Amino acid sequence: MSYKVVATNRKAHHDYFILDRYEAGIALKGSEIKSIRAGQISIKEAYVRVDGREAWLVDAHIAPYDPASRLNHEPRRPRKLLLHRREIRKLWEQVRQKGLTIVPLKVYIKNGLAKVEIALVKGKKIHDKRAVIAKRDAEREIRRAYKVR
């Protein structure tokens, strides 16, 4: 079972602690899926809004598909995410009570269908980000020291 990653949210790992991951389908129009297959999607500033019954992908930018011309889609319209009812309920309760948020991590094509990997996340504070950077730099220095010998 292979899949082709179309877009990733690189800042998500830097800005958030990832607590839980889910795979969701996306309800799309014809011109949207063609644009996604061409790699014309950005999820950099996107997030997921849950209202108890439905989950929506908000602020994801899917560029208009030129050959569709007049039958094109709105680039930033909210798109419904296809999740099981129990998953939506679980996400809604956690976001409501714990002050967490949901962000998309990557969009990919799996068996011909567009899927999005979403994550339940908690925001990092500035000192958390600094600690991660310091740890990464220290590990890099250790690797360099071993490589020289």
Describe what you observe in this structure:
The protein has 4 helices and 9 strands. It is an alpha+beta fold and 149 residues long. It has one domain: Small protein B (Small Protein B, Chain: A, Beta Barrel). Strand 8 and strand 9 form a beta hairpin. It is globular.
The CATH H-level homologous superfamily: Small protein B
| Strand adjacency order, main sheet | 1-8-9-2-7-5-4
Query: How many runs of DSSP E, i.e. beta strands?
Result: 9
Helix amount: 25-40%
Domains (count): 1
Query: What separation lies between the terminal Cα atoms?
Result: 43 Å
Structural class: alpha+beta
What's the rounded overall pLDDT mean?
Answer: 89
Which ranges are low-confidence, i.e. pLDDT below 50, for 5 or more consecutive residues?
A: none
Give a short summary of the structure.
The chain has 149 residues and is of the alpha+beta class. The chain is 34% helix and 36% strand.
Topology:
Blueprint: E1 3-8, H1 11-15, E2 16-26, H2 30-37, E3 41-42, E4 47-50, E5 55-58, E6 61-62, E7 79-82, H3 85-98, E8 101-110, E9 113-123, H4 126-148
Antiparallel strand pairs: 1-8, 2-7, 2-9, 3-6, 4-5, 5-7, 8-9
Features:
4 helices; 36% strand; 149 residues; alpha+beta
